[in-house]
Structure formats: structure tokens, C-alpha cells
Amino acid sequence: MATLPISLDQGMIDQIAKEFDLRAPNKEGLRQLIFQLTGDFDPLDPLVMNMATGAGKTYLMAAAIEYFRRHGIHNVMIVTPSLVVQNKTVQNFSFGFDRYVRGFAVHPEVVSPQSYDAWRVRQAGNFFESASDPSMVYIFNVHQLVAPRSTTSSTGATMDAQRTKIRKFQEDAGSLYEFLRELDDLVVIADESHLYGASAKAFNQALRDLTPAATIGLTASASRGDNVIYRYPLHRAISDGFVKTPVLVYRKSGYHGEQAEERQLRDAMSLLRNKEAAYAAFRNDHPDAPETKPALFVVCANVEHATQTAELLRGPGYASEMSVLQVDNQHDGEETRKMLDGLDSPDSPIRVVVSVDKLKEGWDTKRIAVMCTLRAMASEVLTQQTMGRGLRLPFGTRTGVPTIDQLDILAHTSFAELLDDENILKTFGLDEAVDGELSGEELAAHAQPQPKGTDYVPSSAERDMAAEKRAWSESEPDLRLDGGAELEAGDTVVTIKAVELEDSEEIELAPPVEPLEIRINPAFEGTTFLFPTSTMEETIAPFRLSEVHDHAIQAAARRVRDTGEVLQRQKLVASESDSSLKTERIEDAQVASAPVNKDDVVRELTRRVLGLRQVTKNQTNVAQLQKRIIPEFMEASPIAEWTEKAKDSAVSELETLILQAVREHASSTRTEITIRPVRLPIDQTFTLPIGEDVRALLEEDQQAAFQVRGFYGEWSKGLFPVATFDSWSGEYLLALMLNYSSDIVWWKRLYRRDGASIAYSTRDNYYPDFVALDREGIHWIIEGKSDRGVDDETVQSKKDAAVSLVNELISHPDFDNTSWGYLIAFESDVKSAESWADLKIMANPSVTKRYTH
User: Fold this and answer.
1) Which among 90, 71, 358, 58 is positioned nearest to 214, based on CA atoms?
2) Residue 471 needs a FRET pair 20 to 30 A away by CA distance; which of 556, 618, 764, 825 works?
3) 516 lies in a domain?
4) Chain centroid, CA 799 distance in Å
5) 381 & 325 share domain
6) Could you report the per-residue pLDDT of 22-71, keeping only the tens digit for each?
7) Domain identity same for 416 and 532
């Protein structure tokens, strides 16, 4: 039995949960995991967390790694079941990728079969000397960890070559595999751990051979013999609103005959078109929502079957040539993986993914809206490994639109056959809860209790599409899990639904939508401006010898010593008693070390410093070394006559100094602001959500009639005559002031879709409310705020970032000859100010001016 050197710190759990924006069940799971690790456990027996697909296991994994780091445990290996999952996981933990999980205080360093660089760098220096050191996350798939048949070649793309590479001794770093085995703090996280159980002997042994300090298993399909420490089953994830509700769509008598699969695929394409219409309508009503499109996932029996199906779908009456992607063992090249990685991009042309079983575990796209299982056994259709590919919510949270919030599963078998399978209750995590008292057919009507609560606000795990923060959902408090009234205590949410079609019945296609279009105000037609959108990034520049300070050089030089050489002395002693000759140790002799030329010392110092792996041998560093560092070092040294011993001492002191400077450099980051001009308005028109009309403008005493996010007009000085607002006193009254002020030329309400954001940390940005141009030619960035934000640290951080941004614009070429200002308008100031001029005095804004010479 073992324990990890960590403690159960609820405050730290709360802080990490906040930083990673964990869902409640993930925070609960993190606490249970830490609790188990602080007690006695078998490090070779995985502590299994059985969590529903789509529940956010990746975010829980990341939060656990950060918790370990803050307790001094830096080495974590994530074992994945396949190359597809491995590549996705590398992106999850590598800063700069769209899939990167944000929340880490220090970006992890990733080691994978594609790159050992981070490990080599750490090997050359000292490992983990401070709390600011990053986690080392080793990401390999389980096939690469199985012992190879031979260890003679580590080149090539074969699996044995990959297995050999991790074990082979390398002169610059040693053997990575042996290094991992010798660590006393290695934590192994087995993703999809049900694949590495005792029955998978080679995989199971591969994990045990690593001799980890702890093994953690993550799966949606735990076995009865697993050491399960936390459960969050699928039925809870469905009832909590974290995943879609599965809907079985089926023909009353199934699909039969020669044309069975063609008809099933035509039905699937009809369902997909309905989903596409629903997504388009929702995006039109919520323009700030992420740009995403639904996709169809077709599961085939084998590669030959998948190839035939893909060819059929590329033909007339189905989808286009470029919109069908086949992924299996024979269709897994670089271009296929690139298309698969880019599936969530708004520009992806893919509408249909055809596969066998390659994408069952770990593939986490949010686009799958329809699943079509061809020739699949009934027991295979409703497993989380199959069904789970489509459970993730496309917009991060329930929308209230059933077509979007549901996963349509079209199977060739009948509804009765699907629900008659004995494993159906296990899939939904109800096998132990009901102890066999619930049948498969009853599951279709089974509903989970839904506690009364407030509106659900999505977490980062639900907002991880590239550059999207899911802000639209935070501004939509009227969304309900059932698309209607608020749920009361004891209300229920259906776990699984079914839609039965008669054999001759066709699927009705959704009608097109025609929203109301709003054009730019005729008075300002053609008006555009550049908005200074900003980002912040922590950067570490390459180490330069110019960072080594003179006082440090002098201090190192003063430590150089010439202690001379020591010769041991043995006295010969003759023994008459036994006629032998012996030796006896006597006092050592101190002698001068061999003299060396001063130029030889300079050459050796130069050679050894430039030979350090951490020092780039470029013209700048060579000049720093030859013209400053070594001359300064030699002058400050106390050595008058150089010897071999003094030379060795000098080399040691200078190398130690340089390596210390390298470590200090690696642990220090700086925040760099990057300005990306965005031309606004993006379009000369925009459309209102379906069913929305323009409301008449309200006067200052008509607050009772104000509708949050209602559309109001006509605004005479607005770039657009219609605008919507989130608050009365913070935004609407401010718009009234701008619209009727003689000092204002025009103003524009900013929306998230404009992309006009200001970064106030490397992880966070915010969107101001207005831009206004005054008659002095100053563009004002304006933020309306509640009085509660006066002393709020976040509001102050946003203000500081905006002020810094405005100052940066003075030297930015794209904003030459323009003036900018930033103003926070608190609601009490807006109410008491009689004019725009009054408000500026109260708000004490930051403004830049152009001075003429």
C-alpha cells in the first residue's frame, strides 16, 4: 500500500475548480480523487472514475494535474488508447492549440513520441526546484508502452520502432523509459481505462511495468471488478443537462430488403438537413453563439463496408464529394487526420463521417447530431463508446430547442430490439441504481428527478471551441432544460426518447426561416472604423548571455580558488618479525598545480560556455562572452598566476553561473500585448431573431416597460438604427445620452460577434459596450457598469488593461493620426449626469491626444 505526499486542501480544490471553471460533478470528482490519494491505496490498482461521456473528463484530468503540481508532484503520464486520442490529448495540454485546456497557472510541458525536447531540456538542468516549475505531462498511447520484440532500431514508423525509441539510451538524455520507471512521483492516468483491464494482459502489464506512485483510471464503461472511487453515470449527465438526450428514430418494422441501407441513409440525411435548419435558425437568433454545424456519423461493419457506404454518400441525392470523410485503419493518413482535427472549425466542409470503430473512444467533436448504425448488433448501438460520440452539446449548454438538444440515433434494428438488450441499463448507469427492477422498454419513459435550481451557466469545458467563450449563453437566462417553464423540485427529465415512423412515412423537412433585416443608418452608410482588439500572451524569449549581470560575474570570479595539487604519501616500513615490507600513510604533500597560460584559460572558458546546450551559439552570445563576460570574470578573479587547478575552478564557477541564469530565465515570463485591428461594422446589415420586432424607444421614466435584450429603435446617431441592451441603467440610458448629445457624431453598440474584445489577462478578455466618435475626433471605448463594480478587482483589471491599450495605440501604425479614449460609466453617474460632458468629468476617463510639432 502507498500514499501520495499530498494533503486534502478544500481551499485549493475550490480555487482550482474556479480557475478551470469545473462543473459541479467534476469538482466533486476531484475532491473524491484527492481524498482517496491521501489514504492507503495500491499504486498498481487503478483508482477508477466512472464518468459519462461528455461529462468533462479532460477538464477533471487537467485540474488533477494542476493540484498535483501545487503539491510538488510534477510528473504525470497520460496513457491513451489510440493515436487519434493521443493527438487530441497532446493538443489539450499544449499551450497555443485551440483545444488547449485553460486554467493552468503554469503551462504544462508536454513530452510525446513526436517530441522529447521538453524532457531533454529538463535533463540538462535541474528538475523542479520551485513552485513555479511546470508539470511534465508525458502522453503516449498504450501500444507504444508495450515491450518491443527487439530494441535494435528506433527509427521508422513501425510500432516496434516507437516502442524501442522510448526505451533506447540516448547520449544527450539517457533512456526516457528508464527515467520514468525510476521516478518516485510518477502518476499514471489511464484514459479509457476499461481497455487496459486484467483481460488485456499486454496493456495491463505495460502500465504496471512503469511502477507508478499512483494509477488513476478514467472511463465511461467501468467493469464490475474495477476499483471505482467515483461515479457520474449517463442518466445523471442527461438529467443535469450536461449532454444531449438520446432519441431513437426507427422504422416500425426496421429496415429490410436490398435497398434497406440506402433508405436508412436517406432517412439519416433528412434528419441531418433538419438539424442544419435548426442550427441555422438558432445561430440567427443568437449571433454570438459559436459557429458550428451538425454532422452525421455513420458506423459500418468493416472497412470494405465503410468504403462502399462512403462512395454511396458521395453520390447524387446524398452529400457532395468533399463533404464525406472516411476514417478507419486503411483511411488514416495525414490528410484524413488533418480533416478530422479540423472538424469543429466553422470552415470544415465535412457533413458526414463514415467509420468502423476507430473513433469510438476519446473522439470529442461536438458536431455529431445524427448517428446511423449500419449492420450493428443491437448491443453495440446504445453503448457509450458508440452513442457517446454524439452526446456533447454543440453550443455548450442546452438551448431549449429539442432538435439541437437531442441526438438522433437511426438504427436498422427495431426499437424493441434495441431496448431489449441486457446491457442497456448499464450504459445509462442505472444497473445498480434500480437493481434490475427496470426493463429496457421502461427506460424510454424513465425520468430522472431534476432539482429546482437557477439557470445553468456553462463552464469552460463547454466553451472550448476556438476563441469562443460561450458568452451568448450567459446572456440568455430564459433558456430552460425543457425549452419552456422553469423546472420545479421533483420535475423530471426524460433519459431517452423514441420516435417511430411508419414504413411509408417520410421525414418532413423543416421550413426555411426569413428573419427581419436591419440596414445601417442611411446617414452613416459606408462608415467604418478600426477597433483595437487585443490579446495577452506570456512569452519566454530565447536565453541571451546579456541577461547575466556584471555583479553576478564578479561574485562568481571571486570564488575561483587555486588550492594546488595534493600528493598522497606512503612510508615504507620493514618488519623484522615476519620479514615483510609494508606501507604506512603519512601527511599529504601540497604541491603547486601545473602552470597554464592565461589565454588557455580564456579559450577553455569560451569553449565550455558555448558548449552548454542551453546557450545558443550565435553572434550576439559570442560577442557577449568574448567582449564582456570573460574579460570581467578574468579581471575579478583573485588568481595572479593561472594553474590547471585554478582553471578547473574557473570553469566550474562560470558554468554554474550561466546555468543558474538559464533557470531564472526559464521561470520568468512577461506579458505581451498584441493588437489586432478589426474593421467595424463587419456587415452593413444584420438580422433579428425569428419572431422579434423593433420596439419603440423609451423615455428615461419608462424603465418598467424595458425588456432586457429587446430590440429598440430608431436611433438617429447609432450606426445602426436598431440596438439591443442587457441593462437599463448601465446600457440603455447611456445609449440615450449618446444619441441626443450634441458632442457625439455617431455611436455603435458592440456585440460579441463583432470580435471587439480587450484582453485583461492571458486567459480572459471582455467586450466593451459602445464605441462613440465625438466632434473632437476622439473614438471612445465605453463600458457601462453596475455600481457594484466600483471596488471590484476584476473591473479594475479590465480598466487597467484598456488604459494600457489606449496608450499602446499612440505608437501603433494602424492607429496613426487617430485619438482614443476609454471610459467606465457607472450607473449612478449615468443617472446623475445631465450630459456627455458631465459624464466625462465624473468618470475621469483615460484619453490620448495627438500633439503637433
Assistant:
1) 71
2) 825
3) no
4) 26
5) yes
6) 999 999 999 999 999 999 999 999 999 999 888 889 999 999 999 999 99
7) no
Q: Which residues contact 73 (CB under 8 A, 6 or more apart)?
A: 4, 5, 6, 185, 187, 213
Beta strands (DSSP E) in 422-490 are 447-450
Q: Residue 817 — left, alpha, or beta (φ > 0 → left; ψ -120 to 50 → alpha)?
A: left
pLDDT of residue 137: 94
Which residue, among 638, 550, 644, has the nearest Cα to 604 in the 3D structure? 644
Q: Are residues 702 and 616 in the same domain?
A: no
Q: Tell me if 91 sits within 8 A of 100, measured CB to CB.
A: yes
Strands of the sheet with 245-251, listed across from one edge: 324-327, 352-355, 295-299, 368-373, 406-411, 245-251, 497-501
For 279-290, give one letter per residue: b (16+ CB within 10 A) or e.
bebbbbbbbbbb
219 and 263 both lie in a single domain: no
CA dist 644 and 83 (Å) reads 54
User: Of the residues 186, 204, 232, which one is the last residue of a structural domain?
Assistant: 232
Count of domains forming the chain: 4
What is the per-residue pLDDT for 115? 82
Span 226-246, average pLDDT: 89
Q: For residue 511, is it within any domain?
A: no
Q: Tell me the pLDDT tens digit for each residue of 198-215.
A: 666 777 788 888 889 999
Q: How far apart are CA 806 and CA 821, in angstroms?
A: 7
Render the burial of 480-500: b for 16+ CB within 10 Å, e for the rest: bbbeeeebeeeeebbbbbbee
CATH number for the domain that contains residue 292:
3.40.50.300
User: Does pLDDT of 13 surpass 90?
Assistant: yes
Q: Write the pLDDT tens digit of every residue in 216-232.
A: 999 888 888 889 999 99
pLDDT for 371-389, tens place per residue? 888 876 545 555 666 777 8
DSSP letter (8 states) at residue 543 = P
Last residue of a domain, one of 178, 207, 232: 232
Residue 553 sits in which domain range?
Answer: 545-666
Same domain membership, residue 649 and residue 723? no
The predicted structure's pLDDT at residue 663 = 84
Residue 353's beta-bridge partner residues? 297, 325
Each residue of 57-80: pLDDT tens digit? 999 999 999 999 999 999 999 998
pLDDT tens digits, residue range 806-846? 888 877 889 888 899 999 999 999 999 999 999 999 988 88
The DSSP call for residue 178 is H
Q: Are 204 and 367 in contact (CB under 8 A)?
A: no
E-strand spans in 240-357?
A: 245-251, 295-299, 324-327, 352-355
8 Å CB contact between 297 and 326: no
Whether 49 and 188 share a structural domain: yes
Give the pLDDT of residue 489: 39
Q: How far apart are CA 441 and CA 416, in angstroms?
A: 7
**Closest by CA position to 388, among listed 420, 351, 361, 423:** 361
Q: Is residue 1 part of a domain?
A: no
Strand partners, 448: 493
Q: How far is CA 229 from CA 30, 50, 321, 383, in A?
A: 11, 8, 47, 22
pLDDT in tens, 596-618: 999 999 999 999 999 888 888 88
Contact at 8 Å (CB) between 323 and 349?
yes
Q: From CA 651, how far away is CA 657, in angstroms rounded?
A: 10
What is the residue-averaged pLDDT of the chain? 81
Find the helix or strand (DSSP H, E) in which 84 lies. Answer: helix 83-93
Q: How many CB atoms lie within 10 A of CB 204?
A: 18
Q: Are residues 579 and 463 in the same domain?
A: no
Over residues 147-176, the pLDDT tens digits come to 776 555 555 556 666 666 677 766 555 678
Q: Count CB neighbours of 428 within 10 A.
A: 28
Regarding whether 366 and 297 lie in a shared domain, the answer is: yes
pLDDT reading at 582 higher than 80: no
Would 250 be classed as within a structural domain?
Answer: yes
Looking at the predicted structure, is the pLDDT value of residue 847 above 50?
A: yes
